[in-house]
Amino acid sequence: MVLYGARTSLRRDARRNRMAIVEAAIEVLRGRGSAALMPEIARRAGVALATLYRHFPDRHALTAAVIGHQLHQLEEAAAASTDRPATFRPLLRTVLHWLIEMRALIALAEGLDAGTVRRYQQRMIKAFTKPLRLAQDHGYVRRDLVPGDLLLLFAMVQSVATTGDDTAAARAAADRSIDLMLDGVFRETHPPHEDTLPAAP
């Protein structure tokens, strides 16, 4: 016999433990990870290691859960900015800085299957689509940028983040990448006339 409310209480405890594990994983991975990743996450979450593995059988399952949680936060932030066109650039900068801070998570994500990675990419593009269109309509972003182009920017910043340990330098590079991509390399819409080019040596 199950006492009234006992099963509901267990479900609440399970949800609370799961969220505690995900939040602890974010904390550990933001600190560049740990050699004893799962035990350290369990310790910070305040749960037994067996409890962690009951929710997440391996690192890939936990990695997918953390990315899903972070994507949900991005989707909420993007939805909240759909009436504020000037927030697109700060929103994009926040995501790029997150990629740098969570480089340990990005490294783990390389072990996920291609279908899962593709679904996460599609969710990210979808989250940015409305804020991007709004920013373009109000002249904040170049008109020819499409949501899929953002994946190129993410790949650029991810490459910078994984090749060095200087977080400040990586953030500066991310900010510069945003400026170059959104504003363009050339200030003019059309290239200068040929007669303005320097003579060939």
From TrEMBL:
Keywords: DNA-binding, Transcription, Transcription regulation. Pfam families: TetR_C_43 (PF21597), TetR_N (PF00440). The keyword DNA repair does not apply. It comes from the Bacteria. GO terms for molecular function: DNA-binding transcription factor activity; transcription cis-regulatory region binding. Residues 37-56 bind DNA. Signal peptide: none annotated. The keyword Transcription regulation applies. Residues 15-74 form the HTH tetR-type domain. PANTHER family: HTH-TYPE TRANSCRIPTIONAL REGULATOR BETI, HTH-TYPE TRANSCRIPTIONAL REGULATOR RUTR. This is TetR family transcriptional regulator. It comes from Couchioplanes caeruleus.
